[in-house]
Structure formats: structure tokens, C-alpha cells
UniProtKB/TrEMBL annotation:
GO biological process, any: organic acid catabolic process
Gene3D superfamilies the record matches: N-(1-d-carboxylethyl)-l-norvaline Dehydrogenase, domain 2, NAD(P)-binding Rossmann-like Domain
Keyword field: NAD, Oxidoreductase
Domain 6-phosphogluconate dehydrogenase NADP-binding intervals: 4-160
Family: Belongs to the HIBADH-related family.
Originating organism: Microbacterium immunditiarum
GO molecular function annotations of the record: 3-hydroxyisobutyrate dehydrogenase activity; NAD binding; NADP binding
Name assigned to this protein: 3-hydroxyisobutyrate dehydrogenase
Enzyme class label: oxidoreductase
EC number: 1.1.1.31
InterPro entries (UniProt xref): 3-OH-isobutyrate_DH-rel_CS, 6-PGluconate_DH-like_C_sf, 6PGD_dom2, 6PGDH_NADP-bd, HIBADH-like_NADP-bd, HIBADH-related, NAD(P)-bd_dom_sf
Pfam families: NAD_binding_11, NAD_binding_2
Record-annotated active site: K170
Domain 3-hydroxyisobutyrate dehydrogenase-like NAD-binding: 164-284
Lineage summary: Bacteria, Bacillati, Actinomycetota, Actinomycetes, Micrococcales
Amino acid sequence: AKATVGFIGLGNMGAPMSRRLVEAGYDVRAFDVSPEARTRAHESGATDVETAAGAADGADLVILMLPTSAIVASVAEEILAAGTARPGATLIDMSSSDPFATRTLAERVDAAGLRLVDAPVSGGVKGAVGGTLTIMTGGGDETLAEVEPVLAVLGRTVHAGGVGAGHAVKAFNNLLSATHLWVTSEIMEAGKRFGLDPAVMLAIFNGSSGRSGSTENKWPNFIIPETFDSGFGLRLMLKDMQIATQLARQTGAPSLLGEDAVELWAEAAGELPPAADHTEVARWIRSLAER
Ligand code: NAD
């Protein structure tokens, strides 16, 4: 029989990821604080439960796909306190968490006789639906080898290093991604005002050295069509950028553009609604010109 997998956090990413595990034949025990999310998980074939401890009940693996490190830590505490997971079970934090918090949590989890690995992802909702995520892992070789069959259902794994390494690389990736999106949005507006066709600009960048996830994916798929529905929240992006710049600061590395980017994104986040998609920054940057 396949492993029993607890899955906690059934949002934009967690819902399609848990669905894939159900479809791959795993016994998935799904929990989210949102009753609607639990109902959707039930409809997709998971066993929906009422608590985090219930999701961990008899589980060999518990996947966490939650907004922040603080929430991950409180859910993990609940699981440890309940003692419902199998002895030696592995918690896999696939959220984009803070690597320092992850290291602290790993010690807590180890002391309780369980294990923790970090396995954050890139590839968005589309990657979650299609099982084509890039999964950046941090943790011991042996533990990661054990969880690999489950991760393989969700995407392609790249081992970044020890516990916290996956979370560090993920935060850095998103700082790159956010900075690219901001400057792309600035030059797209400038180009349009100069009289350039946005589609022509993107086609040229995508065959040139200015290409990025913003020119290849975000602009053509969510911004030009004005749907702004990538499924990745602006506040979550800002959280990742703050993790990255704080990490840079703590290492003593310069983070000049990074800090400026955090400030700009924070300003946009302060003005846009809490649930705004991160691609809304493009529209917000355009609106600055009209002030
Ligand atoms: P989301 O806000 O859509 O989903 C988070 C879910 O967690 C919600 O359903 C919420 O109800 C639930 N939740 C909150 N607190 C909880 C608790 N205490 N117990 C149980 N459930 C709780 O977020 P998302 O977009 O799915 O992102 C999840 C994580 O993955 C974040 O760390 C995010 O930064 C990261 N991420 C997102 C994307 C993306 O494209 N959306 C891509 C890569 C990584």
C-alpha cells in the first residue's frame, strides 16, 4: 500500500497538489482552516479532517502548504503535541518559509522524534495542476530519498543543501522574480508611450538577454489579457522578498536593489486590496503615471 499523506493548507497551490497525490493513489488526509477548502478536497477524493492533528493521524508524511513560517510553526506544534503521526514520520514544509525559522523548527521536530525537510516550489498554480513544479529541497539525503516518490508526483526535485537551504533559494528566486516583474512593468509602460507594440516588445525580449519569467509568462498570460489571475498573492510575494533581503543582511552581503524593491512592493501592497494578485503591480505602476 502507498504511504498515508497528511496535507495541510489547501489553497491555490495545496488544492491541486493534494488532488494529484489522490490521483496517484495516495491515501490523503486533508486539512485547511477554511471549510470550503476542506469540502473541495473531499470532492477531489481526499479524506477531509477537522484538525491538523487529524491530518497527521497515522501519516507517514505530512505536507504543509501554508502562507507563512509562523503558521507552519503553530501547525507543527499542534501535530507534535497530539502525537498522532507515525513515529519517525516526516513533515515536508512546501510553503515558502523563512530558512532561519525552518532550522529552529527542525530541531524542535527532531527532538520530538519526527523529521522535517523543506521543499518549497516554483511553477505557480499551473505547475501545481500539471505536476511540473520545481521543488527545491533542504534536508538529509536519506530522508529526502524516502519522500522523493511523493515529491515526484508534484514536480522535479533539486536538492539545495541541508535543512533551510530550499527555503533560502526559494526566497532568493522570488526576489529575482519580483525585481524582474517590476522593471518589466516600468519599461512596458515606457515602450507603449513611445509607440511600441507590447506584443512586439515581449517577442523581442524573449529572444534577447532581457527575457525572464515576467516577459515569458507573467506579462503575456496575466497582464496583457488584464486577467491578473496568476493565483499568487502580492502579499505572499512581499513576504518572500522580505525573507530574502533579511537573509542577505544577516550574511552581511549587500542588498541595495533588493531593499529598494521591498520598499516599492510594500508601497504597492499598502494601496492594493489584501487579496490582490502579485501581477497587479503592473497595473499599479501604470497608475503612478496618472497621479
Ligand atoms: P493560499 O493563501 O491560496 O493558501 C493558503 C491556505 O492555507 C488557505 O487555504 C488557508 O485557509 C490555509 N491556512 C491558513 N492558516 C491555516 C492553518 N493554521 N491551518 C490550516 N490551514 C491554514 O496560498 P498559496 O498561494 O497556496 O501559497 C501557499 C504557500 O506556497 C505560500 O507560502 C506561498 O508563498 C507559496 N507559493 C505560492 C505559489 C503560487 O503561485 N500561489 C507558488 C509558489 C509558492
